[in-house]
Predict the structure.
Amino acid sequence: MIERYSAKIAGTGRYLPDKVMTNQDLEKIVDTSDEWIKTRTGMSERRVASEEQASSDMALEAALQAIDHAGLRPKDIDLIIVGTISPDHAFPSTACIVQNKLGIKHVPAFDISAGCPGWIYASNIAKQYVENGIAKNVLTIGVELLTKILNYEDRGTCVLFGDGAGATVISRAESSDISRIIDSDITADGTYWDLLIQPAGGSRMPASHETVDAKKHTVYMDGNRIFKLAVRSMYDSCDKVLKRNNMDISSIDWLLTHQANLRIIDALGRKLKIDPNKVIINIEKYANTSSATIPIALDEAIRNGKIRRGDIVLMSSFGAGLTSGSILIRY
Ligand code: UT7
């Protein structure tokens, strides 16, 4: 492909609901323990949205921050892509609802259903639009409100997830800009489509009294099998992106991966042979917010001064599909 322009991350934002649910809170509703959750996952607490909130409400807050951080106004956004597996509705897209809340019209807006790499998929697409000159400022959002679709009788899933939103503005980079999206890779292996799934509510299993009674509208996951595939898929994606840019792990200032399990993050870090001090982790505070984990942690690390202008950051994720992908940036 001929790239006419370069793309960069121009602004970031995040939103986490105020309500905190600790491991101790979970001990009261399901047969689990703080000790099990901490040692098996690294999680201590997670955020839970209010009854009134929907994904678009959280996405809006993160989006407004990211647009402001980029020095822009909502009217400057010319494409909106939302990565989510917990949209406000099956249709229309959450992106169209966010567009309306931002008070803008007549720009394309759509959702990406790519599981946890939803923000990586969205940003990969945004990069193409910016590089070919079709768009100048793309809003990409990872947002999840999974606590409303968890089965609080299934301890294998309900302790793992939390709510939140992260947003970025991906803009055309000027030639004087040091910031760049250097490269991005996305892929999927549909062989494993049923390992992480919300079984009912679509055309395969429409909503009925029976599906509701059987809790088929909640998250089902074969955690063990996904665990084994996670490290391999993220490693392959990181390796591919590094190699095709003639870089190795010593070129990376920060590794920021999907926050699904501390043991997965550690195993990937060891396999990539990266200094553990260069790995960004916030899983203890927010647990797994699916497509929002990376943009939330990116915003947090930029705003607390950890990631600085010019730093090389490698981000990687995997999830329902099974999907995986990476983005390599110079911030
Ligand atoms: O972001 C989307 C992608 N998802 C993931 O990346 C998740 C990947 N998978 C994982 O992170 C891990 O597989 C889990 C955290 C889901 C589970 O950890 P594990 O070390 O693989 O545990 P396990 O499923 O092998 O279960 C071990 C034991 C079982 O008991 P028995 O059969 O050995 O008596 C489970 O019933 O732990 C039990 N267990 C729990 N105990 C207390 C499972 N969940 C819990 C729990 N509290 N919440």
